[in-house]
Amino acid sequence: MTSKFPRFVLAAAFLFAISALAQTSSTPASGSPAAAASSAPAPAAAPATTPATTPVVLTGTKVGALNIEGAVFGCNEGRKELDALQKKFEPKNTELKNQNDELESLKKQLNTQQASLNDDALANLKKQIESKQKAFDRSYQDFQEEVGNQQQDIFGKILGKMAPMVVKYAQENGYGMIIDTSKPWPQGPVLVAGAGVDITQPVIDAYNAQSNVPAPTTSGAAKPPAPKPAAPKTTTPPATTPTTTPKN
Fold first, then answer.
1. Would you tell me how many other CB atoms lie within 10 Å of the CB of residue 207?
2. Is 159 within a domain?
3. How far, in Å, CA of 12 to CA of 219, rounded?
4. Per residue in 67-83, pLDDT tens?
5. How far apart are CA 22 and CA 166, in angstroms?
6. Is 219 among the domain residues?
7. Which residues pair with 63 in a beta bridge?
8. Structurally, how many domains does the chain consist of?
9. Residue 2 contacts by C-beta under 8 Å, 6 or more apart in sequence?
10. Residue 35: what pLDDT?
11. Hey, which residues does 180 pair with through a beta bridge?
12. Per residue, what are the HEC states of 115-154?
């Protein structure tokens, strides 16, 4: 399963970070539009003190490339959260693998025995395969959605703390623009970005120092955003010709 994080999550997090930094750098005068805006009820997703209309201007001239998903899941906190998430879903992962193994065994039986089975036995075996395939597909889809939702929660939680640090990093290091390279072109907007402009590792290092979260001992590198069943080979055999081709 590939990670799919809505772009509005990224935009909102950085908007809040920029607004928060703007508030600390300048206090609006009483009676001004900014003061009125800050005293109005804030949306549920934003901190009550966040003025949504006060930007921070980056005065630098450098352009930086940041893989924000790589930074979130590559930092110590992100890796720790993913380790915990994977352990949490290990029982369900094992259950799905067992269901898949049973399904593949029935398909193999159909391939090898269909010529010798009578019509009733053949129909019953096909019906059994179809029923188990549907049950597996539903369980696997629910599993993917649940893992994806919890992964997105982790992403949003860490990004909310990392975004202000990224803005501060840009200000202190002369960056006028930072582009997100999480998705390769054409899924993402960046056609190509050289290693010389990539600031992902410096951001990870800075966040690790800020968070004081130690590196996980179970792995030496960031894991994929979501665990998957070990062998998700699922293909429903057609009514007349069975198949064991794995589904990508």
1. 23
2. yes
3. 31
4. 999 999 999 999 999 99
5. 14
6. no
7. 177
8. 1
9. 225
10. 39
11. 66
12. CCCCHHHHHHHHHHHHHHHHHHHHHHHHHHHHHHHHHHHH
Q: Is a pLDDT exceeding 70 seen at residue 190?
A: yes
- Angle, alpha carbons 70-76-79 (nearest 5°): 65
Angle in degrees, CA 89, 180, 166, rounded to 5: 90
Residue 223 within a domain: no
Phi, psi of 58 (to 5 degrees): -85, 115
Tokens linked to 62: 């450098």
How would you label 112-131 residue by residue, b for 16+ Cβ within 10 Å and e otherwise?
eebeeeeeeeeeebbeebee
Q: Compute the residue count for the chain.
A: 248
Cα gap 126→208, rounded to integer Å: 54
Structure confidence by residue, pLDDT tens digits, 15-33: 445 444 444 444 444 444 3
> What phi and psi, each to the nearest 5 degrees, are found at residue 183?
-110, 130
Residue 226: what residue type?
A: A
Helix residue ranges, H only, the chain: 7-25, 33-39, 68-74, 76-88, 90-113, 119-172, 200-211
- pLDDT, tens digit, 9 for 90 and up, residues 106-163: 999 999 988 888 889 999 999 999 999 999 999 999 999 999 999 999 999 999 999 9
Tens of pLDDT, residues 34-92:
433 334 444 444 444 444 445 666 778 899 999 999 999 999 999 999 999 999 999 99
Strand partners, 179: 65
pTM: 0.64
Cβ neighbours around 44 below 10 Å, total: 6
Alpha carbon 7 to chain centroid, angstroms: 11
Contacts of residue 36, defined as CB under 8 A and 6 or more positions apart, other chains included, come to none
Query: Looking at the domain assignment, is residue 164 inside a domain?
Result: yes
111: domain range? 7-211
